[in-house]
Amino acid sequence: MYQRLLQSYTADADRYDEMLAADGRLRPHWRTLIDQLENLSPEMMRRRAEEVRDAIASDGMTYNVYADPQGVNRPWELDLLPQIVAADEWQKLSSAVTQRARLLNGVLADLYGEQQLLADGLLPPALVFGQHGYLWPCRDVHPPGGVHLHLYAIDLARSADGTWWVIADRTQGPSGSGYALQNRQIMTRALPEAMRDMRVQPLLNYFHALHECLTRLAPTSGEPPLVVLLTPGPYNETYSEHAFLAHTLGFPLVEGVDLTVRGDMVFLKTLTGLRRVHAIMRRLDDDYCDPLELRSESALGIPGLTQAARSGNVLIANALGSGMLESTALHGFLPAICQRLLGEELALPAVASWWCGEKPALEYTLAHLEELVIMPAFPSMRMQPVFGHTLNAQSRRRLVESLQLQPHAYVAQEWVRLSQAPVLSRSGEYRLMNRTISLRVFAVSDGEGGYHVMPGGLTRVAPRQRRDVVSMQQGGTSKDVWVLGERNDDGEFSGGSSTAESGVAVGPGAMTDPVSRTSDLIRTTVDVSSHAGENLFWMGRYAERTDNLARLLRTTLQCTTEAQSENRVILRSVSEVCIRLGILMPKSEQAHPTITALQQSLQAAISDPSANVSIATHLRHLHHSGYQVREHLSLDNWHALNRMPPMVQDKINSPTAMLHVLNSVIQACSGLAGHALDDMTRDEGWQFLMIGRHIERMVHLATLIDQFMQLEPARQNAALTWLLESSSSIVTYRVRYRRTPEWLQVLHLLVFDVSNPHSIAYQFRMLQHYLTDIAQQLGILSMNIPAHLSDQLNSFALPDFSRESATAEAANARLMQLMREATTAGFSLTDDLARHFFTPLSAPVSQGV
Fold it and tell me: Which long-range contacts does 37-43 make (Cβ < 8 Å, 24+ apart)?
C-alpha cells in the first residue's frame, strides 16, 4: 500500500520525519491525504500543482528578495502537500504558545515599566540596555489595555526525538499570517476533498479576533474606531501580504507620509481632509516609526508618533520597543522569568542557548564549538548562523577571535537537526522528496490577558535537501498547515470545518464588531487616503494610456500587413503621425521607412520595457499603481489587473504574434474599464480614477487630432478609417452614417459629438461633471478648465471646416490651437489635483503627463 507515491521518498535516520514513523509506516494523521493522492494520476497531480502556481500568479502573491533578479516580481511558492498536525498534538502546542505570548507581554510591561526583572537579577542589564532594540523614549509608555504584544509569532522546529523547540520569537511586526491565509485559500481549491474529509480547522476566526482586538482596545473617545495598516511601501519584501491583509481586514493601507501627528493625535490624510487614527497595525520596524524621537534619518515613519502613544491617544500594534524580545540571547533566561511572572513552568522552551556575554557561557561555547550554532545576539546585527562543525581551522580561529573580542554580541545554540517533510518534485515528476522545515505559529491578544492561537500557520521549507537554515530570503518555499479536528469514539474527525476558507469568504464585510453601535455600522463613505487617491488617479490614466496605445498600434500594424498600393499611401501618412507622437522609432534613414523597419518599431512599442512609450512600460506603471491600492479593488478586478504585465513578456517575432498580443491587451483594458464602472463604489477614490481616465483620453485625442490635421487634405482623406479605428469610433461611424468616412462627419464624431464617449467634447463634459462633484464633496473651488475649453469648442461652426469653405484654413488653425490647449490643460489639471489632494510619495508613480 502507498507504494506508487512513496517509492522514491526517503526518510533520514537522524531526523524526525513528519509523514513517516521510525518503522517506515505512515503516521495515522497522514493516511487520508496519501490515500487520496494515490488515487490521482501523475497528470492530475501535475495539473493540481500547476493550478497552485497559477493561483499564486493570479493573486499576485510575491516575496521580494532584494538580491533576486526577479526583484519585486518574485512569486511566492507553495508546495501542494501540506504539513499535517494531529489534533491532540496541536492542543498542547497551542496552550504552550499562549503561555509564551502571555510571558513575553509581561516581560515587555516590566522592562518598559518597573524593571523589577532587572532589579532581581533575572535579566542582565547589559543584555537589555546594550542593544539597539531597547527604546529609551518608550519607557513608561502605557499602551491601551496594558497590552504591549497584540500580535505574536513563534518559529518552531522539531528535533530528532519529535520534541518541538523554539527557534525564534517574532514580536516587532510579525509577518506571515496573511501568507498563511492565502495558502489556505489556494489549497481549498487544490485539495478540497482531502480538506473536507480530514476536517481541517479553519483560520478565519484568528482574523476576526485580530480585528476585534484592535478595534476594541483602540482609544476612540466614543468615535467609530479607524485602524490603519502601516507599511514601509511597495518595495518591502512582504508588501503583497500587507496589501492582502489590508483588504481582508478592511483597514486602509498607508505609508508614513499618509499620516501626521497634530496635538498628540495621529491623523490620516484623506481626500476629504484629516481623519483621526485610533489604532495602527504596523509592519514597520520599531526605530523607523518616528524620526523625531527614534531614528532621525528615517523617511518611513511619522514624526511625533512616540508622543502620541505616550499620551495614550493611539494604539500601536505591537507597542514600540517590542522588537527587543527578538533577541535570541533572552531565551536562556525565560524559564526563570516564567516562574516569577506566571508562577508556571515554561511549557515550550527554546533550543538550549548560551549568551556569550556571561563568562561561563563563553567558556562553554569555546569548549564545545563543534556542537553549537553561533548566532547574533541582537536582531539589528546582520549575520547568518554559523555551524561550528562546518568550519575549517582558519574560519574557526576567526570566529573564536570575534567571540573573545565582543562576547556580548553572540549567542550559542545547540545544533538541532530540523525535522523533514515531503514536498512534491518541482520538475513535475510524480515523486516526493524530503526537505527540512520549520513551523511559524501565530497568536493574537484577546485584550483581557489571554491569546487566541491560529489553528494552523505557515510552514517554511528549506530550498535544498539537508539544509538547516530555513529562510524565504534564501529561496525557501512554503506549505499550508492543516490542524485536524478532534476524533470521536468511532475514530472519525469532528470539529473543524468541512468548508474551508475560500477567496469569496474573506473580506472586510466579514470583519464586524458585534458590540458596535448600529449608527457606526452604517457608513456611506470610505476613507480614501491621499496616497490611495493619487494611485487610483494614475491607475485610471495608465489604463487609458495602455488602451489608447494598443488600439493605435493595432490599426497601424494592420496597415503594414496589407500590400495594396493605397494602404502604402495610408501607411506613409499614419507613420508620420505616429513618429510625431513619439511612438515609432524607425531604424531606416529614409524619409519613408520600409515595412520591415516599421514592424520592428511596432514590436519595440509593444514589448520594450525600456522605451518611454511602449505597452510594456505602461503596463508596468499600471500594475505599480494598482498594486498600491489593492485593498480598493475586488478580487476579480485585481486578478484582471495582475494578468496584464505577463501579456508582453513572451517573445514576439511576427506580425501575427504582435496582433494577438495587442488584441489581448485591448480586451484586458476593456475588462478593467468594466470593473471600474460596475465593480467599484462611487466614492472619492473612484472619481479620481475616472478623472484620470478622462484626462488621459482628452490628451490622447487632442494630440492625435492636432497631428492628424497637419497632414495634407488628400492624405487626411486616405487615413480617415485609420483615425476612426485608432479612436475606437469606427463602429459608431458605420452604424450612424453607413458610408465611406468623410472629413466633416469624422470631425464631428471625434471632436464635437457629446454623445460619443471617444470624442473631445465628451471628455470636456465628463471632466467638468466630475470636478464639480469633487468640489461639492471636498469643499474647494471648482477648476474651470473644462468649462473654458467647452465654451471655445461651442464657438465653432461645423460648416466652417468644409474643404470648399473660405473659412476652412482659419477654422483648422483655431481648432488645432484648441487641441494644444486641451493637451496643456491635461498638465494643468494634473498639477492642480496634486496640489489640492495628493501626498508626495516616497517613489514616483508616474512618468510624464
Answer: 37/5, 37/81, 37/194, 38/2, 38/4, 38/5, 42/430
